[in-house]
Amino acid sequence: MEPEGSTKSKRKRKRVELEVSPEEHVHADAAVDRISNLPDSILCHILSFLPTKEAVATSILSSSWNSLWTLVPALDLDSQSQCLDGKNRTQSVSFFTHMNFTVGNSSLILELWNGIAVDPPSSFEFPSLKDLRLVHVFFRNGDCVQRLLSGCSVLQDLKLCSDSRSGLIRFDIRVPTLKYLCLQFLTFKPSLPDYKLAICAPALECSHFDGDLGHVVFLEKLANLVEAGVWIDPFVCTREAWTKGYQIGYGDRVFRLLKALNKAKSLTLYPGNKQCVDFGSIYPSRFKNLVRLNFTLQKSNWHVLQALLLVSPNLEVLVIDKLYSRKNQLCSMEPFDGPGYVSSQLTTFRFNQYKGSKYEVEFVKYILKEARVLKTATISVCDTALKESVIEEVSTFPRSSKTCLLTVEVLH
Amino acid sequence: MKFCTVKQYFDDENNNNVTNGIATTVIPLPNKHLKIKANNKEMEQYEQELLRNVMPQELTKLILAANYLNFKEALDFFCRTVANAIQNKSVDYVRKFFGLESDFEPGEEEKLCKEFAWSFEGVDED
């Protein structure tokens, strides 16, 4: 009689699975002719489709609805819906006090964006928040960030997107539980001061950085780092006059950031264009754990690729993507004098947007010659007309790996 | 899979949770879903048609049916419909929709209104 028994017990069990389990009112036998008689978990599910502002408004419907909205696991707030006025300090503070008081126990994801003023009171707490996204919010001062983060004792995911209007000049990110960090800094105005950021997140497993790199310092080693992504893009406008002055010392910042990420197993890197001109050698720091490297190449950052390859003895997968370089740009490639520029463990190599330029040819030749355990080498060209000539040329390059499969494909 | 409970439903004769009428509405949904999966607009139209004349009470039954059958897409769809129906509406409208009555003390409701003032901005005229 097993099937019968299991049917019965399954019927009594709750179906809708949310991340939080609120107090359960099972109205299985009651008259179900009113929506409000639906179990709390389903009502919460309905509320989760409303913008938070509206979900909060349901608190006034009746006493049983009063705290229902606090059980919704994800909250998102946007000041464009006139939820919070950036200029109104009392409103902002009352919002945070409220969130603290009523939402504390169940909110798992909080997304704040577009101009909301973040200025939490000093006793602020978000005891179960795991995922926090701050997108273009405005901070009254640098302390606001840490005050917000200090209140989140179990925070694991943090995304911070800041542009020049965010008011961040000097701030910290200190979160001992943080596993995933995504930072994005966009600058649209050259006249703004540089920012200074100190990060203390020793449990970090995944770190992504995108945009303009200021003075970023990691206070503790990232021993658990698995994945890292760095995309340097300092200024959205291309005015020469401004970028000239900014270049000096920028390569040093990129270098320091990379050093801090040297425990990563997988790295996606675009070190910028002119910005990394003064980028030196990474040695003696080594990327011992690096197994996968995805590098976005331009004429002016070859030396960064080479420096990185030199210190990655266990690299297995290398993928090169190319970004457009201007014609009269200097190529920073250094001659390959001897082996050691590529790991002896390399099994997979891919070069995208291959054009067959002198430097590309030299690089591909070197890889094919030195990578003894190479299994697949793929070259992709953008132009179908180029495919034949590339196949012809590349198949003549000596390969030290007998089992290497060489493919040339067309990818637009 | 999506219909692990359907088999049990058909096996189980004394089933109060899902009436036959509801079942005929809910069960064809996944097939339709698969057929026009790529085309969002078509799905929207189909959904609009399906719910044009459905009263809140019917919707309740549909939601419970979808929940019982463990059919996530239908459950999300029905809940989203309810959410859309009450979005941006005044407190009184929503109360009527759900069949609720205010059971607050006289001063309490006002107090709540003030505290959450920011959440009541931009509401539709009924």
Automatic annotation (TrEMBL), chain A:
PROSITE patterns: FBOX. SMART domains: FBD, FBOX. SUPFAM superfamilies: F-box domain, RNI-like. It comes from the Eukaryota. It holds the Pfam family F-box. Residues 32-68 form the F-box domain. Gene3D superfamilies: 1.20.1280.50. This is F-box domain-containing protein. It comes from Quercus rubra (Northern red oak).
Automatic annotation (TrEMBL), chain B:
It holds the Pfam family Skp1. Residues 75-118 form the SKP1 component dimerisation domain. InterPro entries: SKP1, SKP1-like_dim_sf, SKP1/BTB/POZ_sf, Skp1_comp_dimer. GO terms for biological process: ubiquitin-dependent protein catabolic process. Pathway: Protein modification; protein ubiquitination. This is SKP1 component dimerisation domain-containing protein. It comes from Quercus rubra (Northern red oak).
